[in-house]
Structure formats: C-alpha cells, structure tokens
Amino acid sequence: MGALTAGTVGKGTMAQLLVLSSAPGGGPALPALELLSHRVRQIPAEPAQLVNAPNADIIFVDARADLVGAKSLCKILNTTGLDAPLVLIVTEGGLTAVSTDWGIDDVILFTAGPAEVDARIRLAVGRQNAEQPTTRIQTSGVTIDESSYSAKVHGKPLDLTYKEFQLLHFFATHPSRVFTREQLLSEVWGYDYFGGTRTVDVHVRRLRAKLGDLEQLIGTVRNVGYRFNVYDDEPAPASRARSDA
Known about the structure:
By secondary structure, this protein is α/β, with parallel strands linked by helices. The protein has helices at about 65-80, 115-130, 160-170, 180-190, 200-210, and strands at about 15-20, 40-45, 60, 85-90, 105-110, 135-140, 140-145, 150-155, 155, 180, 220, 225-230. The chain has two domains: about 15-130, 3-Layer(aba) Sandwich (Rossmann fold); about 135-230, Winged helix-like DNA-binding domain superfamily/Winged helix DNA-binding domain (Arc Repressor Mutant, subunit A), CATH 1.10.10.
C-alpha cells in the first residue's frame, strides 16, 4: 500500500485524508474533520480494502472500538511501504495501550476539536515533506523517487527498466512540453547513442503499458512527438484511441 503518499499541505490548503474505520454505525471516526475543508475518504479498516485505496496526504486509523485490530493494521501498513503519515484515532482510555511499536506518527483523541485536528494535519505533512525535500516527484498519480530510481502509480510499484525510469523521469520533470523523438534520444539516451528514433516509440509504448490507467499521461502530438500531460489532483482521462505521431 505504498500507494498512499504525502503531498504538500500548507496553512489554508486542503489535504487529502484517508480514514480507515470499521466501527459499528459507520459514522465519522473523527467528527471534527466534517468542520474542516480537507478532502476526506472513509473506507473499512480491512487489509483487502487497501489494495485500491486512494492516495492520501495522511492516513487516520480508527482504534476506538478495536485496539488489537488497529495495531495489526498499522503494522501491515508499515510493512507494505507506507509513505504517508499515520495517525491513530483513540478514546482517552485507549491512550494507555499505544506505544512506539505501533509504527504510528501521531495519536489523537476522537473528541479533538477542529483547530487541533487541523494543526496536527499541517504538522504531520510538514514533517513528512521536510524529511524528503528533493528526492521525490509527485504528479497526476505518479510518484518518482530519484534516490532509489523507482516509481509508483497510485502507490503501486512500477517494474521499470533503467531506461524506462529515465524516460518517465524526464517527462515528469518537463510537464506539458512537447519533445520530438530526436530530442528525447539526445536527452535520455545521450548524443553518443547510435540507434534510430524507433527506440523512442518502443520505450514509450512499453512505459504506457506499465502506467496502466494512467497511460494517457504520455500524450502523442501528431507529426511532432510526445509530451507529459498533467492532471491537477484529478485522475487521467480514460484511455482512448491514439494515432501515431
């Protein structure tokens, strides 16, 4: 579930929050969130639900009714390469059970007021950004980690070759700009590469296939080349027919 990655959230900015809760009744696990402008998605606190969980700046785990289950879920989240800060929601009595081996970043009472909740959101995301200031690129559902030469789509790791990673990285760092095949060859493969421009088409096709639902991020500009399309906080449009550039 490395799918859940932290974004940049400042004062007055909406954060994307994911609440994992299986408490009876289905009501809000943290009522104060309903008084704030953040985007909140609540799903059942079950491992199976995490497979297709949306991206989030912070993940809240509801431990009010099931401390044992919540602890187990927190450990699963950390084991699967969680990127977003993890905050535990507890009752006052539940505070006595929380310890460092839970693997959480913060703990908050479910009765906390909106001012406190908002402050904790800003601080949690701020700490996350400070820890990884320059090695990560996030755009349109794609996360690129420059330090480990790896990439993810909605938190799911992409199995990329080194050259495919370089191509994706180049596109993502030059959003919306159109590049000819010759330009891509010189920038990604280098001036001393003697292969033809057909190799660009082959790598773009393979990269699109690995991007899956986000294949349209790499757009074709007819008779010119390719560009990286940016979709601000929205999913890329559904795949549609393309003509060769």
